Structures are given as structure tokens and as C-alpha cells.
Amino acid sequence: MTDQTHTPAPQDEDIPSAKALPKRRLPSLIWLIPIVAALAGGWIAVHAIMQRGPTITIRFDTAEGIEAGKTKIKYKDVDIGNVTGVVLTEDRQHIKVTAQLAHATDDLLGDKTQFWVVRPRVAGGTVSGLSTLLSGAFIGIDPARKATDKRDFVGLEQAPIVTTRQAGREFVLKAQDMGSIDVGTPLFFRRVQVGEVSAYTLDKDGKGITVKAFVHAPYDQYVTSNTRFWHASGVDVSLDANGLRIETQSLASIAIGGIAFQAPPDQPVAEPAAADTQFTLAADRNSAMKEADRERAPFVLYFRESLRGLSVGAPVDFRGITIGEVKAINFEFSKEKREILMPVTIDLYPDRLRGRMRQDQPIHTPAENVRILNAMVAHGLRAQLRTGNLITGQLYIALDFMPGASKADIDWKQFPPSLPSVAGSLTQLQDTALSIAKKLDALPIESIGKNADQAMRNANKVLDNADQLVSRLKNEVTPEAQTTLKAAQDAINQAKQTLSPDAPVQQNMNDTLQEVSKAAQAFRDLSDYLSRHPDALLRGQKEDAK
Amino acid sequence: MTPRAVSAADEGLLNCHSCGLLSKNVPNAHDRCPRCGAHLHLRKPDSLARTWALLIAAFLLYIPANILPVMHTASIIYEEDDTIMSGVVYLWTSGSWPLAILVFCASVTVPLAKLIALSVLAWTAQHKSTWRQQERTRLYRLVEFVGRWSMLDIFVVTLMVGLVHFQSLATISAGPGAVAFAAVVVLTMFAAMSFDPRLIWDPEQKQDD
Ligand SMILES: [Zn+2]
């Protein structure tokens, strides 16, 4: 103890005693705090563990846009996980993304689960992932139906066009070439977009392309067993005997191409096709619909006229209904007839000859077909070349009953059998013109003129005699009679004048006959020219460099 | 060695916290001030136990405070949960290094340092260590001083929550981590308050006796 000189140390008696209270021997309440903290922390930990879903790894080619801790995994736009790490694989060829999924997402993972990075993308005419421009990329997931314990996945480089959650069916199309098809190319049904191309592969033999086309529900029911698929890419302009045709599906298909499908309109509604049914992808609607005619009957037609304007594929038409098409145009020299023939092979579709109303009728047997065709030919059924398109001079083949056609029949012995033909309408016109010209030509114009001359000379003689007679009478008859005779002489003079070779009547007649002769010549020229240039009927004469 | 000191405790005297009246200690009892009736304590009652309890609670909550998101941002284009560390990382990668360091210090280092410092103080006090008493006292003052500044993150989050609230465009809300973090800060402050620095010096007297 130190001495306190200035302030005396307080004396014991000066200091009051503290009041004593009974001691409480309970643990301090302060320990509630760590207990509560421990409980809270424990609950948070348990909760976090409970909410923690599976950890997965996904392999991608590039980590572009993927950031650990930031990038989300989204399913139907709901966050179901987070990327927790991005590392290069051991071979340094890929990147491995580790992601922590949310609680109860195990059933989204399976053998067929697909992951892809959603980045802004322009393809197949659509812009996707625009929101990622601002928010950054995210990883999309297409869950598999069956859950497995697979946890390592290989990510897709592009979002799949069709995910398993989309209802619909996928069909296989066999195509000759890609055209403008790409993944995402739209599928049209009656110009409504109902699906997309989901994938394509080059066939192993390199002879074609296999395209997978997905049709969304409920439109997939319109794909039936008899449905045809065709390229609806861009604008399809065709110019043939049927005239100018422009076909297109939609503005989008003009820009990016497309595939259209439809069942042939003249066929009954068929059963919906099963998924993965294989179809042929035709080049255009027409050829797609032609496929419908399974039954084909080849025939050959012999023509003697120019086939200029007739092309392979030209329609064979029965009173406006296309019942076949030209398959081949050939050249043949007939030894026995000593002439050049133009055999045209056509395919007839007997199906189309059967009436629509009699759809239910059984298909004719070949023997029946022979009998029916024979009967039709006997009634005058002939093939004829006709001008289909006035502008282009395209020809088509018409089958029709020709009144007054000479007797003919079908030669069933040769293959293909030959149907009798008649000269084309143009040839008939040429023939008529020619026959007119011939008749005109045959007119004895010169002798007519000579005869007329002779007749006139004779008439002159008669008139001269009459004149003499009149002048004789003038002197011998009475003056009364003289006036009459004078009048008669005037009349005779007039007649003489009229009949003289240089008289106007005579001149006019000669001119007329010459004109007729010229016309005959012109007709001959025209028919000759037309036989070589039938299209000149419409286009006018063209200078041909020969 | 510091000069020989006499403490009130040595003399069996108690000082009333409320009215300042000095009174004699009655052993083994809960004492009250004879003048105003306030509780009288030689040292802060159960100082070490309270400190330990609060420290343990703070330690426990320090973990969720750093793991759980403190801030939830939802805007029209994205939604994001930010933990303290992700915020620091963001500040660092976006170039705001000074701010990143500041936030890191205020929100991660300082609370942890405080927890450790208080643990050291409580541990040494409990074992009546005479090791570096001067420095330990200084450390205690530092802990007490720093305490009020370690609320920086909570302060920022609170401000953000209040300011950024354009309903349709973006909303920011405090995450569960913020609660834990605030709890850690408050608990360490209480722990610092409940620790009686006089305990640092008590062993010396016992030794001298
Ligand atoms: Zn008092």
C-alpha cells in the first residue's frame, strides 16, 4: 500500500457494505445465443445440403460465354443450376464445365439428356437467344425421360431444333440433294409452318441425303402414309404446255427454303404415318404428286410431223385432264414404209382414267384395260399433237375421239403397244391451206383469159357484122327506122368498147386472176413455212439463220 | 513490468456502475448497491463465459455469412445472388481494386480478425496468462474501436435495397447471408463489450501475492 497524503484512504467503516442476495446457480442465459446460432447454422447447412442437387460435368468445345459462378442452367427458363467451374480437359481439346444442379433435378438427367449453350444465334430464319445478348449465355437442357445416374455429359454445340419435351413426330425424308435445306428449315402444310428440319446426314453411299423432319403436334396427324414431301425452296417458276406457273410457300421459304407436304388431294384420307416413316423428298410439288400414280402403262405414239415444242414431261391430256406424260421422244426409220417416224413414248396413268366417283371400284385387270382401250380406239380415240401454250409453242399430246378418223387399232404385240395417232391440228391447218393453194394453182387462169379473149373476138365479129348490117339497113330502110338503127349502132359501139382488150372490164378481170394466182403462191409459201415453223402462227415470221 | 498496482478488487471494494457509490464486497453473493439497488460486480459478471458464448455464436454464423448470398438482384434480363466474396471478385475484376480491398477487409478480414483476437484475449484471460499484457490491452481497444466499422457491407446492402427498387426493372433484396453477417457483427461487438479487459491484468496481482 502506498501512502495517500492528499486524499486519505477511505476507512472501512466509511464504506457501506453491499447488500447480499441469494446466489442464483443456473447456467447463464448467454449460452442460449451460441445454441441458437448453432441451431440456425445447422438448419441452414441441412437446408443447403437438402437443396443441393446433383453435380454434373458437361464437355463443350468452347467456353465462350460460360463463366463459373455466373452462368446458369435453365430448363423452361427456370434456373435449375449454376456453373461452378470451367476447366480445360486433359487433352486440351475441350472444356469441362462443372455445374451444381438444384434439388430434385435428378429425374432430368438421363442417357439422352442434352446440354447446349444458348447464345444469340441467327439460323433457319429465326433469331434465338436474343435475351442472352444482355444477360449472357446460359446452358439449356433437354431432359431425358428416364433418369439414370449419368453425371458426365457431352454438350451440343448448337441448340437442338427439337427437344424431347416438344410434342410431335419425326419423319425421315430421302432427298437427292440438299437444295436449300438446313437444320431449322421450316416445314409447311398448306402454307402453315408446322415443323422444322431437325437434322440431316449424307447417305453412306453418297447417293442421297437423309433429312429428319420434325412435325409438331397436332399437325403431325396430317402426315399420312400417302403424304408427299417436296422442296418448297424459293420461287419455282416453270413454263410448260400448262402455261406459266409460279409456286412458292411463303416469304420465309423464298429466303431460306422450305419443305412442304400434303397428301394427294384426289386420294382418300389415309392413316397417320408412324414416327420415323420414310418418305421421298421430291424436287417440286408436281413431281411429288406424280408419285401418286403407281400404276403406269407405257404406250408409243408414232407421229410424222415435227415434234418441235414437245418435251419430255409434257402432259398427255384427255379433254383437259392430265392422264399421262411424255417419257421419251425418239427417231425411227421405217424400212417397210420408207419413211421417218417420230415415236413418242408416253406413260398413261390408268388410275386417273377411272372416275373419281368410282373410286371404290376395283382396279381393272390388264385384260379389262386392253378391252376398254380397244373399244375406245374403235370409237375413234386417237393421239394428236396440240399446241398447249400459245406463247411458247409448247406442245402436248391430246387423246381424244376424232370423228371420221380412219380405222385403226392398237398393236398390242410390240412393247410398248402403239396407240394410233392423227396429224396435229396445226398439220391439219397446213394441209387445208396447202389444198386450197393446190386448187387455186390448178385453176386454168391463162386459158380462161385466152378463152375470154377469143370469146370477145368472136363477139367483136358478131358486132362488126351487126354494124355492117345496120349501115346497110341505114341506107335501105326508112328514116323512121334510121333513128332506131342509130341507137342500135350506138349500143353496138358501146359493147365493142367494153369488150376491147384494153377495156376496163377486161383489165379488171385479168388483174383479179393474177391476184388469185399470187394468193395461191403465198398460201403455198405459208404452208411450207408453217410446216417448218409452227410457232410463227403466233410469234410472226422470224428470220432464221440457216 | 508495469508498476505495482492496487485494484479495487484487491481491497474487496465494489464500484456501483449506476451511481458510482463505492461499497464493500460481500463474498459469495449477488451484490446490490446499497444506495440505488443496482447490481454490483467486482468484474463484469461471467465475462469470459459471455464472451465465449457470443464468440462461438459469431463463429457459427460467420460461415453462412460468407457462403449465403447477401444480396439478391433481379432485373428484367437477369437474376443474381451475390455473396460477399462474389461481390469482392466482381469489384476486383471490374477494376475497382481499392474498393475490392476495402470491402474484403471490412467484410471478411476484419470480422475474422476480430473473432480471432477476441478468442485469443478470452483464452489468455481464462488461463490467466501474463503474456504481453500491454499488447493484449491495446488489441482489445483496437477490437472495440474497429467494431463499429465492420458493418460496411450491411450498410451498402441496406442502402442498395432502399435505393434500387424500380419494381419492374430491377429489385435488390437482402439475402439470408446479410442476416447472418449482421448477426456476426453484432455478436462480435457484444463479445468485445462483455470481455472485461481488467481480466488481462488480474493474473499479475495473483502472481505478486
Ligand atoms: Zn448505486
TrEMBL record, chain A:
Pfam families: MlaD. Residues 52-143, 168-228, 299-400 form the Mce/MlaD domain. It comes from the Bacteria. Signal peptide: none annotated. Keywords: Cell inner membrane, Cell membrane, Membrane, Transmembrane, Transmembrane helix. It is found in: Cell inner membrane. InterPro entries: Mce/MlaD, PqiA-PqiB_transport. The chain crosses the membrane at residues 29-50. PANTHER family: INTERMEMBRANE TRANSPORT PROTEIN PQIB-RELATED, INTERMEMBRANE TRANSPORT PROTEIN YEBT. This is Paraquat-inducible protein. It comes from Silvimonas iriomotensis.
UniProtKB/TrEMBL annotation, chain B:
Keywords: Cell inner membrane, Cell membrane, Membrane, Transmembrane, Transmembrane helix. It is found in: Cell inner membrane. The chain crosses the membrane at residues 52-77, 97-124, 145-166, 172-192. The keyword Magnesium does not apply. Pfam families: PqiA. The keyword Protein biosynthesis does not apply. Coiled coil: none annotated. InterPro entries: PqiA-like (IPR007498), PqiA-PqiB_transport (IPR051800). PANTHER family: INTERMEMBRANE TRANSPORT PROTEIN PQIA, INTERMEMBRANE TRANSPORT PROTEIN PQIB-RELATED. This is Paraquat-inducible protein. It comes from Silvimonas iriomotensis. The lineage of its organism: Bacteria, Pseudomonadati, Pseudomonadota, Betaproteobacteria, Neisseriales.
